[in-house]
Every structure is written in structure tokens, then in C-alpha cells.
Amino acid sequence: MRGGGVIDPVLTDRWNFACDVFGNVPACDGVIIMLGDSLTENTPFSEYMSFRHRVMNRGISSDNTRGVLQRIGEASRWNASKVFILLGTNDIGNGIPLSESMSNYRAIIGRIRELSPGAGVYVQAVFPVDHKKLADNARCRRRTAAAIRAFNDRLRTLADETGCEFVDTWGIFADGDGEMDGACTWDGLHLNGAGMARWCGFLEQYM
Fold first, then answer.
1. Crossing angle for the helix pair 145-162 and 98-115, nearest 10 degrees?
2. Looking at CB atoms within 10 Å, which of 13, 22, 140, 153 has the fewest?
3. 59 three-class SS
4. Contacts of 2 (CB under 8 A, 6+ apart)
5. How far does the chain reach from its first CA to its final CA, in angstroms?
6. Tally of structural domains, the chain
7. Which helix (H) or strand (E) segment is 118 a member of?
8. Which residue, 21, 64, 23, 57, is CA-closest to 40?
């Protein structure tokens, strides 16, 4: 934990184990990297995308912009063709200030550009959540529709400023109230199979 009850993923055995595994995978050129937290980690992209793409899953459960900024150097081994970033829901849930999240995000993009200068960088909007299924989860109560919209508004601006592609992954899941479509989540936060299929199907146009 850091001050203010923020979960620091870098201090967890799971985070360090995953980084060790990633660091020992033989590198190759031209891969597509999916970078993020548990939403990314849980999704078998290659299966949903019919193995048409060489996708490396670099999601770690509970990770946030602080953690990814510390581990982004692994991308230097890959000479990636594209990097898709999905980060922010854990920043919101842990109460990390929006200004810090954006500063971290900007630094992450800068490191990707430095380490894989030919890579296209795709900034994905934070997904909505289904509060009906999250009523008893204190951290998820911070993930209000308004907080997620504000985060995504800043992300869109940041993508424009840094020359990245903004990918509206919020829009494919949100209902009229800004809540996650209940048919796409099993717990209100994480995607079920139908949600993963919808996400991967939407991303195909960017691949």
C-alpha cells in the first residue's frame, strides 16, 4: 500500500512474477502489445481474433499507470508494430489524482515512442462499470460514471496532444446512463466471454 490506501501493484508478488515471466519470453519483431490491467490480462486476444495477429498480452491484475510506467521498459525488446493501452480503472478505484494519472500516461507514451519508435500507439477509453453488481465494493464505488467520463475526456485530449489514436472502447459497452451493459460483465467490472468477444471484434478494425 501507498499513502491514502492506494494499492501499489509493484509491491505484490503477482506483479513481480508476471514481470519476470514477460522478461524471459524470447523477443521477436512486429508484435502487437496489449498493455494494461486485469481486463487485458484476462482476455485471450489471439483466440478471439482467430490467430490472425501476433499478440502479446501484457496485462497484470490490479495494475495502474504507476505500475506500468515502471515496467514499460520491457517493450524495448519487442520492436512492436502496435501498442494498445488500457489503463485507468484502477487509478480511479484507488483514488489516484487525475493529474498524476495523466502525467504517468504521458510518460508511458513517451517511453513507448522512445523504445519502439515505429509503433502505432492506441489509447483505449476506460470501460464503464455496472454499479448494480458492485454495490458492496468500496473501491468500485469510486468508479462513478462521472469519474470515468472525466478520465476519458482527459485521455482523448492526451491522445490528440501526443499523436496517438484514441479508441472509444467506453462507447461499445456503455448504456444510456453510462453504466456497463450487464450482458458483458460477470461482476460489474470484468468482462465475461460476450464482453471479450465484443471488445476484440471492435479492435479488429485497428489491427
1. 40
2. 13
3. strand
4. 8
5. 37
6. 1
7. none
8. 57
CB 166 within 8 A of CB 159: yes
Measured CA to CA, the distance from residue 187 to residue 192 in angstroms comes to 9
C-beta of residue 57 within 8 angstroms of C-beta of residue 205:
no
Q: Return d(Cα 67, Cα 37) in angstroms, integer.
A: 10
Q: What is the pLDDT of residues 86-119, one digit of tens each?
A: 999 999 999 999 999 999 999 999 999 998 888 9
Residue scoring higher pLDDT (142 or 12): 142
pTM of this structure:
0.87
- Say which residue the cell 464482453 belongs to: 195
CATH code for position 122? 3.40.50.1110
Q: Is 82 exposed, middle or buried (0-12, 13-18, 19+ CB in 10 A)?
A: buried
Beta bridge partner(s), residue 82: 32, 120
Q: Residue 180 corresponds to which cell in the numbers above? A: 456497463
Joined together, the cell numbers standing for residue 166 give 484514441
Q: Distance between CA 147 and CA 167 in Å, rounded? A: 18
pLDDT digits (tens, 9 = 90+) for 36-65: 999 999 999 988 887 667 888 999 999 999
Find the domain containing 9 and state its range.
3-206
